[in-house]
């Protein structure tokens, strides 16, 4: 799986299952660098690296999900040599969901979908758009909604010059997304979020149940929008346990 589209923190070619992870806005695939240490050994973490960041900094970032999706799906289709699960947090949940839909009618549909920190697709966000704001109010709005960018990074003009365009592009993807009606997925779906997440409160996460005809579970964890980052081992154990309960990993039902 030698492709600029994927970052594998700890390559595991003998694994029974690939876990393709989609990152949230403003970051890259390294957000999942700690996951292999805390997931079952049968999982190979393959983090999807969108353009415009980290090792793909010179590649133009996408501004709409519709523009990005064909390339994402094409990249995955060259790497589906074993069963796989799709995971996405926040913006990444939209990518994971739409990728699952696109691949659902192919010979290799996803074995499961896990979405995190994102309200169900039909629930349009009511907060004002921020991606068009000037730099200072834009960064202030990001800080207020999501917890913000550390002051030491905001004070580095060179870093911010690299970060801002991609962060804007990502948030535009989120703000412009509109769900289009389509068949429900057949695979299990696990929807999770932070109990105090103002962007995706628990009552907006549970309605993900409408998007699958398979097994479904919603779970709320302590914390806000980035709840899993405060306890990666616990969240990874929960993911592994869920995949085993579904019988997707050895040791399950």
- DSSP helical segment count: 7
In the CATH hierarchy, what is the class?
Alpha Beta
**Could you say what the CATH topology is called?**
Rossmann fold
Distance between the termini: 30 Å
* DSSP strand content: 5-15%
When the domains are counted, the total is 1
Rg over CA atoms: 17 Å
Strand order of the largest sheet: 1-3-2-4-5-6-7
Query: Low-confidence parts, pLDDT < 50 over ≥5 residues?
Result: none
Please tell me the CATH architecture by its name: 3-Layer(aba) Sandwich
Q: What's the count of strands?
A: 7
Helix and strand composition category: alpha/beta
Quote the average pLDDT.
93
CATH superfamily: Alpha/Beta hydrolase fold, catalytic domain
Rough shape?
globular
Tell me about this structure:
With 253 residues, the protein is an alpha/beta fold. The protein has a single domain (6-124, 178-245), classed as Alpha/Beta hydrolase fold, catalytic domain (Rossmann fold). 32% of the residues lie in helices and 15% in strands. It has helices at 65-77, 91-103, 135-146, 151-154, 157-176, 202-205, 232-245; strands at residues 6-7, 17-22, 43-48, 84-89, 112-116, 189-194, 216-221. Helix 6 (202-205) links the parallel strand 6 (189-194) and strand 7 (216-221). The model has no long low-confidence stretch (mean pLDDT 93).
């Amino acid at each position: 799986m030698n492709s600029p589209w994927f970052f594998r923190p700890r390559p595991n070619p003998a694994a029974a299952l690939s876990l393709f992870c989609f990152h949230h806005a403003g970051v890259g695939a390294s957000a999942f660098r700690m996951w292999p240490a805390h997931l079952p050994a049968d999982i190979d973490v393959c983090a999807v690296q969108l353009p415009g960041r980290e090792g793909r900094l010179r590649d133009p970032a996408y501004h709409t999900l519709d523009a990005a999706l064909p390339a994402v799906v094409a990249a995955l289709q060259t790497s589906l040599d074993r069963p796989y699960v799709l995971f996405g947090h926040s913006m990444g949940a939209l990518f994971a969901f739409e990728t699952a839909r696109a691949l659902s009618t192919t010979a290799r549909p996803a074995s499961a979908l896990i979405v995190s920190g994102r309200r169900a697709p039909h629930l349009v966000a009511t907060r004002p758009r921020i991606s068009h704001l000037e730099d200072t109010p834009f960064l202030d709005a990001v800080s207020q909604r999501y917890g913000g960018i550390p002051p030491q990074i905001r004070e580095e003009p060179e870093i911010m010059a690299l970060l801002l365009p991609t962060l804007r592009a990502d948030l535009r993807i989120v703000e412009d997304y509109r769900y289009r009606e389509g068949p429900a997925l057949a695979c299990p779906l696990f929807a999770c979020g932070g109990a105090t997440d103002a962007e995706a409160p628990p009552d907006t996460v549970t309605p993900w149940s409408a998007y699958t005809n398979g097994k479904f579970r919603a779970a709320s964890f302590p914390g806000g929008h980035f709840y899993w980052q405060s306890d990666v081992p616990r969240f990874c154990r929960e993911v592994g346990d869920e995949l085993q309960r579904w019988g997707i990993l050895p040791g399950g039902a």
